[in-house]
Ribbon-helix-helix protein CopG domain-containing protein
Amino acid sequence: MVRTQIYLTERQRAELAAIAKTAGKKQSELIREAVDRLIDQSGHSRREAVLREAAGIWKNRKDLPDFKATRAEWDRN
């Protein structure tokens, strides 16, 4: 692990201490859990954004083969 210093408001510090006491965890553990959740949420949002940007990128291409015809050749009747 890498040591990192952060600044918290008095309210944040007090609430974090109360949550840690109730949960039976260290404040640093709660902070790491919160950072992990933020990273997971951010990663999910970034993946969705990339997929939305990529959707339809081949829509108007004229240099591609007729995929429906190619697929129809594969179908067994």
